[in-house]
Structure formats: C-alpha cells, structure tokens
Amino acid sequence: MAPKTVLITGCSSGIGLALAVRLARDKQRRFQVIATMRNVGRSAALAAAAGPALGRTLEIKQLDVCDEGSIRACLDSIPGRHVDVLVSNAGVGMVGPLESQSLAAMQSLMDTNFFGLVRLVKEVLPDMKRRRGGHIVVISSIMGLQGIVFNDIYSASKFAVEGFCESLVVQALRFNVAISLVEPGPVVTEFETKLYEEAERADYSRTDPETAKIFTDLYLRNSRDVFASLGQTPEDIAEHTLRVIEAARPPFRHQTNVAYTPMAALKHADPSGALVTDAFYKLVFKYDAVLRFGLRAIRLLRWKSRKVKAGVRLLGFK
Ligand SMILES: NC(=O)C1=CN([C@@H]2O[C@H](COP(=O)(O)OP(=O)(O)OC[C@H]3O[C@@H](n4cnc5c(N)ncnc54)[C@H](OP(=O)(O)O)[C@@H]3O)[C@@H](O)[C@H]2O)C=CC1
Ligand SMILES: CC1=C(/C=C/C(C)=C/C=C/C(C)=C/C=O)C(C)(C)CCC1
Fold first, then answer.
1. How far is CA 314 from the centre of its chain?
2. How far apart are CA 7 and CA 86, in angstroms?
3. How far is the CA of 167 from the centre of ligand 2 (A)?
4. Ligand 2 close to Cβ of residue 128 (< 6 A)
5. Is 154 a catalytic residue?
6. φ and ψ at residue 202, rounded to 5 degrees
7. Is the CB of 142 under 6 A from ligand 2?
8. DSSP class of residue 100?
9. Residue 172, SS3?
10. Could you tell me if 136 and 172 are in contact, meaning their C-beta atoms sit under 8 angstroms apart?
11. Tell me, what's the ipTM?
C-alpha cells in the first residue's frame, strides 16, 4: 500500500517533533511525513532526531497556523495538495490570574489554538471531501473537557476546539472524513517551561495579593508536582496518536492519561456541576497536603518501576 501523507503542525519541539519522528521512522514505512513549523530556523532538533529519515520519509516545511497565506503556500507545494492525515498540533499555553493577562495576549492565544485549527481545516477539508477520504487529528487537551483553576483562557481555547470538532464531525463523516481529538493531560515539554517562565515575568500589580498568593503558593507549586508525578513524555503522546491514526475506525475522542479519566467522568456524573467544582475546590484549598502526599507516592512508585525495568533489561530478560 502507498504510504499515507501526514502533515503535522508545530514540529519544532515537543509532541509535534516526537510524532513526526515516530511516524517517519515507522518500520513498515507506512507514512510520508510533512513536518511543519512556523520558523524553519528552529528545525535543528527535529533534523537531529529524524536522522536518516530526513529527506526520505520526512520533509520539513514552513507553516504558521496564524497566517492563511503560509498554510496555502505549504499545501500548494504538496503534489495534488494530497494530505491523507492532518495533525493539528501547534498550540500555546497561558496560566495565571486573569487580572495579570492582557486581552491582546488572550486573543493571540485564541488565534493560535482555535483559529489556527479553523484555518487549517478550511484549507484541507474541501480536498478531503472531494476525495471522499482523510483524517483530521487534533491535539486537544484534557482541559478541553474540564477547566482547571488559573487556566481560564487556555481551557476556553481547547473547549472551543472541542465544540468545533464535535459539530463538524457529523458532516465530515458523510464524506468519509474522520475527525479525532487526542486529549493529553500534562506532558513534559517546552510548553511547561514556557509557562513557568511567563509566570515568573508576569506583572501581578493588578492582581489582589490574596489571588496572587493562591496562584504562586498553591497552584504553581502543585502544578509542578502534578507534571512531575503524572506527566507523560511527548513520545508517549506520539504512540497514542499513532494508534489513533492507524485505527480502522478512528475514535472521535482519545484520552492519553488514565489518571484524568475520573476527573472528566465527575462532570458527567452530576449535570449540576456541583460534584466536580466541589472536588476541585477541596483539592486546591483543603486537601492540598493530601494531594501533594499522593503525588509524591506516585513519583516514588514510578521511580521504583523504572528501576525494576532497568534491572530486568540489565539482566538480559528484555
Ligand atoms: N505539554 C502539555 O502539557 C500539553 C500540551 N497539549 C497540546 O499539545 C500541543 C503541543 O504542545 P507541546 O508539544 O506540549 O508544546 P511545545 O511548546 O513543545 O510545542 C508547541 C509547538 O507549537 C508551535 N507553534 C506555536 N505557535 C505556532 C504557530 N502560530 N504556527 C505554527 N506553530 C506554532 C511551536 O513553535 P515555536 O517553536 O515556533 O514556538 C512549537 O513547535 C499544543 O496544542 C498543546 O496545547 C495538550 C495537553 C497537554
Ligand atoms: C489535577 C489538579 C491540579 C493541576 C492540574 C494540572 C496542572 C494539569 C495540567 C494539564 C495540562 C498542562 C494540560 C494541557 O493541555 C491542581 C489544580 C494543581 C490541583 C487539583 C488537581
């Protein structure tokens, strides 16, 4: 069978980079990867990770999801504009109290995370519909299902992504085009480091001291612990995304982190919203010490299981 052409956005780092490499180095050579990024000057890490796949099963192209012209130019450069799988991955984060965030920064985030997806779909879907085949895979987030304190704007952008896809999927199916949402929890990438750097630089002078203290002393501290204990690697997300891409009947939603499934389930268990709001309130303000203790125990267990696996490898059993 001819390899599938997969176009991925945001491949200069993190999940996009890991997925591009995973697909391009597929042993069965099932994929031809077009790894795109807004600034090709940042392609060194991808080129190094791709190794001999570069120029064979992987090519790097410029694409800025905030620029319709750049999306069109990229697609026009592909023979027949033929894309079998579009992976909309490019995205940015934002945390902190609302009062310390400018409207311009919020609009810019929406422009990347939501309108970036809309621009891509507007450009790719008509070709897929004409061909009566294709797959649009969107890297959403667990925060597209459940908001998390101090992630108001980021979460809203992912809810927008989810609403857009949920609405579009039925029409797309009529044309044999599949849409899938991949919903990771925390993933240890530059995304996390950029958030903490921004939080360091932010101006909290418009935020009341009590809110600023809750953000720095409770949220940031716990968030670091959450990433350290429950965070997945970009390679984990690449494996999950591969499973979604290769599925004979692609799922509409795919969560990558089982630790977050109960959180999403609480919302559906109680339509009034009281159950989930109450649980989060207690986790943040009442049982934060219990939360930290639990997270530390998970870190210890993960560390031990890594040691055991390393021991098994060392003894030559695997
Ligand atoms: N890390 C996490 O905890 C989670 C991340 N996600 C989602 O995963 C996706 C990838 O994030 P992740 O890999 O973690 O983070 P990274 O910061 O490592 O990667 C984000 C990528 O998006 C690119 N990007 C940003 N703006 C644009 C743009 N206008 N046009 C094209 N590319 C752009 C960045 O490019 P550049 O180098 O030029 O900035 C970078 O390549 C995002 O959609 C994010 O919301 C979902 C759940 C959890
Ligand atoms: C679970 C949880 C927390 C933090 C969760 C975080 C930090 C999740 C990050 C998810 C990401 C980064 C998704 C990206 O799209 C709190 C509020 C600390 C305490 C309450 C329980």
1. 34
2. 5
3. 27
4. no
5. yes
6. -60, 155
7. yes
8. G
9. helix
10. yes
11. 0.98
What is the number of the ligand 2 atom nearest to the C-alpha of 222? 18
d(CA 15, CA 21): 10
Quote the pLDDT of residue 318. 60
Task: Tell me which ligand sits closest to the C-alpha of residue 266.
Answer: 2
Give the strand pairing for 31-37 and 134-139: unpaired
145 pocket-lining for ligand 2 (C-beta < 6 Å): no
Does the C-beta of 41 come closer than 6 Å to ligand 1? Answer: no
Hey, which of 138, 161, 223, 266 would you mutate to test ligand 2's pocket, going by the most ligand atoms within 8 Å of its Cβ? 223
Distances, alpha carbon 121 to alpha carbons 22, 55, 77, 194, 312, in Å: 24, 26, 17, 27, 46
Mean pLDDT of 80-99: 97
**Alpha carbons 186 and 19: distance in angstroms, whole number:** 17
pLDDT in tens, 146-202: 999 999 999 999 999 999 999 999 999 999 999 999 999 999 999 999 999 999 899
Looking at residues 19-45, what average pLDDT do you find? 98
Hey, what domains does the chain have and what are their CATH numbers?
4-209+232-260 (3.40.50.720)
